[in-house]
Protein 1
Amino acid sequence: MSIESTLRQRSGDKCELCGATHDLQPFAVAPHTQATVDHGALLCETCRTQVEDADQMDVNHWRCLNDSMWSQEPPVQVLAWRQLTRLARSEGWAQDLLDMMYMEEETKLWAETGMENDGKKHVDCHGAPLAKGDTVTIIKDLPVKGSSMVVKIGTMVRNISLAQDDPELFSGKVEGQSMWLRCEFCRKK
C-alpha cells in the first residue's frame, strides 16, 4: 500500500488539519523531507500553502485546529502546535488552545525543532533579503577569530551560501578562505 493511500485511509480521505476533501496530498512534516506514515500528514492545498508560507495565513481558516489538535497522530499534533504557536502571537483564542493542548515530550520536541527559525529570514544590514548565490559587500572591518586576519570594509563576497539553522549567518570565500559571517555586517549588491 502506498504512503498516500495509507494516509487517506488513516484520515478518512480528509485533510488532517481542516477536514477538506479536495486537493489532498501527503505533506512531510519538517525537519523530515519525505512524507511517510510516521512523518507526514494528508493536507489540502489551502493548509499546505499556509503551513509553508506564514505570510499567506488566513487566521479564520485555522479555527479548525480546535478539533485537529486532539489527533492521536504525532505529525498532525506537530502541525497543529506549530500553527497555533504562530497564531498565538496575535490571536488570544490560539493561545487558549495551546494552553489546553497535550503532546508527548518527544512530539513536543519535534514541534519545537521545526519552529527555531520560524519567520526569520536572512537579511542584510538594510533588511534586504539575501539568497544563495548573492554577492554582498562587507560594511565594517571584521577581525577573524583565531587569526590575525581582518576582513576589510568594502570586501566583496560572491556566491554566498546561507546557514540552514541560523538566519543571522552566511558563508562565502574571502581571500580564498571559506568562512561564516554575520548578515548584519553586509550589504547586498
Note: The beta strands are 25-28, 40-43, 136-138, 142-143, 150-151, 156-157, 161-162, 169-174, 177-182, 186-188.
Protein 2
Amino acid sequence: MKPALTSRDWFPKVAAATLPGAGLTLGVIGVLGCVSHGDVTPRDASGQFLMWLAALIWVVLLGTCFLFRSGRQAWLSLVAANIIVWSAYGLTRMLLS
C-alpha cells in the first residue's frame, strides 16, 4: 500500500520547485527559443509567447512540487531534469549554429 501524500516536507519541495525549477524553466524556454528561432525582443509575438510560457511552466512546477514523495526526491528529479534540458539546449545551439 502506498503511503498517503502529506505536507511533511513542504519547505524542501517548494525550494526545489523554486531554485532548480527556475533553471528548468529557463532551459525549456531556451530550447524552444532555439528551435523556433524566436527573437529576443519582448515586443514580438514569439518573445511574448516565450515570456508567458515561462510563467506558466514555473507556476505548474510550483503547483505540482507537492506530488513528490519527499523533498529529496523533488530535488533529485528537478536537478536531473535540469541536466537533461540544459544538455538539450547545448545540443540545439550546437546543431542550429
Note: The two ends are 51 Å apart (CA to CA).
